[in-house]
């Protein structure tokens, strides 16, 4: 067992949770809608706050605040209910997400059918936030770093152990064990209750697919229509999912290689095979001799992974490669998200609390050696060690097991070549849900499908489901 004051806090609250689908306490709260915080933009949005238990096993104990938003429907005669949403992460703020969806083109038929509800999940944004007190040099991605060998894994272990220690001794350490997906799902049910709804529909993207899966598993009879776009898999962001990112890069990379080969002006190769060889060449040269401004092979691989998310980023990524290949100036990248420390801290809280991660450094060294061969582009990163190996508390409850028990009301959308939530994970989630779910795959690359890409087949099926509840009788493969 890991030693920490947080373990004491976790051990003190080991009373059993209420049965799934039964609220921990009867809530009398209602939401009082008003103006949103100044940094939450989006015409028509209203915001409110709701107090919820920090620990649902102690419903009369300490409470935290959850920030909620609403984009109200404008056609009462067509209104079906509410559509809860989640913008992914974990660690993503979601108050503005209803307006983002509208501006992305959420069809009028959907907007007429629902009040669209956003929230900042517990630990994030305008909800009661958590912190790890990270130093500026620690404000980097939570995606593991590429390791050349066992010594790199050992060095990374020392670094991430320091991050875990900071989380365990931070100003919000008393909250640490309770920032979990299951508790966020329970918060969602408190929002449902405060809205006066007997059931809620749900639309979540990326990590939000796991949150939605957990919600409809814990509260199956309170779930109306559940749309999950770009699925993590039935275990959420656990150790196996992190390793799966390497498979996602292998799935997606051919799309970029084809793009770069079709644009010889970048000088990255005239065939996809030559572009792939260029990747290894640039990485090896930067491993041997980093650029003065700090670009090394690890950062090159990490940035390439991140920029494979969306087709619209391929020109920038090709320019980035060309600059590193030729020694030219690196193109300016877009600014990072605001409140990065809170986002990274809350993300760590969720992924490290949701499941029990391997703690042996040798396990990660072995996995890196295996995945470097299986997935040469990114395997030695996806399998590397993270702060979860040294997390200062054990999971406060077992992971929620996604099963086929419940109404058949889940629709999964999935791009075939998604680097961030690979197809293999979506297939695992589809299998776990059994007849509860149908899955629509779209022959396209990149992260996110509905509204974010223009596959009419996939978009129309999703809209039809939200508006009418109708799904395909069997899984559907949408062509490009």
Question: Could you give a short description of this structure?
Answer:
With 480 residues, the chain is of the alpha/beta class.
Tell me what you see in this structure:
There is one protein chain. This protein is of the alpha/beta class and 480 residues long. The chain contains 15 helices and nine strands. It has helices at 5-11, 97-104, 108-113, 150-168, 181-194, 207-218, 239-261, 272-288, 297-307, 314-326, 340-354, 361-374, 379-382, 423-433, 456-468; strands at 45-53, 63-71, 81-86, 114-120, 200-205, 223-229, 410-417, 437-445, 476-478. Helix 5 packs across helix 6 (207-218) and helix 8 packs antiparallel against helix 9 (297-307).
Strand count, sense and barrel status of the largest sheet are:
9 strands, mixed
Q: What strand line-up does the widest sheet have?
A: 1-2-4-3-5-6-7-8-9
Q: Please count the beta strands (DSSP E, at least 2 residues each).
A: 9
Secondary-structure element string: HEEEHHEHHEHEHHHHHHHEHEHE
List low-pLDDT spans: 1-28
How far apart the termini lie comes to 50 Å
Mean pLDDT: 93
Indicate the percent of residues in helices. Answer: 25-40%
Q: Which radius of gyration do the C-alpha atoms yield? A: 22 Å
Structural class: alpha/beta
Mass-distribution shape: globular
Report the sheet-strand fraction. 5-15%
Individual helix count: 15
Keywords:
single chain; 480 residues; alpha/beta; 9-stranded mixed sheet; disordered N terminus
């Amino acid at each position: 067992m890991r030693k920490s004051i947080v373990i004491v806090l976790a051990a003190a609250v080991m009373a059993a949770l209420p049965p799934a689908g039964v609220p921990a306490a009867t809530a009398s709260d209602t939401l009082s809608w008003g103006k949103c915080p100044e940094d939450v933009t989006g015409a028509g949005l209203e915001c409110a706050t709701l107090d919820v238990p920090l620990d649902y096993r102690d419903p009369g104990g300490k409470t935290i605040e959850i920030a909620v938003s609403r984009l109200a429907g404008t056609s009462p005669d067509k209104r079906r209910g509410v559509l809860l949403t989640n913008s992914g992460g974990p660690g993503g703020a979601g108050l503005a997400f209803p307006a983002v969806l509208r501006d992305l083109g959420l069809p009028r038929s959907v907007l007429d059918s629902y009040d669209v509800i956003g929230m900042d999940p517990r630990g994030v944004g305008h909800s009661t936030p958590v912190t790890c007190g990270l130093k500026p040099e620690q404000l980097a991605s939570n995606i593991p770093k590429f390791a050349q060998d066992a010594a790199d894994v050992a060095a990374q272990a020392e670094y991430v152990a320091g991050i875990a220690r900071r989380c365990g001794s931070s100003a919000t350490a008393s909250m640490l064990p309770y920032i979990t997906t299951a508790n966020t799902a329970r918060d969602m049910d408190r929002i449902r209750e405060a809205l006066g709804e007997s059931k809620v529909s749900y639309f979540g993207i990326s990590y939000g697919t796991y949150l939605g899966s957990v919600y409809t598993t814990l509260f199956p009879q309170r779930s109306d229509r559940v749309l999950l776009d770009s699925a993590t898999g039935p275990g959420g962001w656990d150790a196996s999912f992190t390793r799966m990112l390497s498979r996602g890069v292998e799935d997606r990379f051919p799309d970029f290689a084809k793009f770069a080969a079709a644009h010889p002006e970048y000088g990255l190769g005239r065939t996809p095979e030559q572009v792939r060889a260029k990747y290894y060449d640039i990485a090896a040269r930067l491993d041997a001799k980093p650029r003065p401004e700090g670009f090394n092979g690890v950062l090159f691989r990490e940035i390439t992974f991140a920029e494979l998310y969306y087709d619209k980023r391929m020109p920038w990524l090709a320019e980035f490669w060309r600059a590193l290949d030729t020694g030219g100036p690196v193109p300016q990248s877009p600014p990072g998200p605001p409140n990065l420390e809170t986002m990274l801290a809350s993300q760590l809280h969720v992924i490290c609390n949701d499941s029990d991660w391997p703690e042996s450094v040798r396990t990660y060294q072995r996995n890196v050696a295996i995945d470097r061969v299986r997935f040469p582009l990114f395997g030695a990163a996806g399998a590397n060690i993270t702060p979860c190996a040294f997390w200062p508390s054990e999971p406060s409850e077992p992971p929620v097991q996604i099963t086929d028990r419940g109404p058949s009301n889940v629709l999964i959308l999935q791009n075939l070549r998604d680097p961030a939530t690979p197809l293999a994970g979506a297939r695992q989630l589809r299998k776990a849900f059994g007849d509860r779910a149908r899955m629509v795959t779209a022959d396209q690359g990149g992260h996110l499908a509905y509204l974010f890409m223009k596959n009419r087949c996939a978009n129309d099926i999703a809209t039809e489901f939200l508006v009418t509840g109708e799904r395909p009788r069997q899984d559907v493969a949408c062509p490009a």
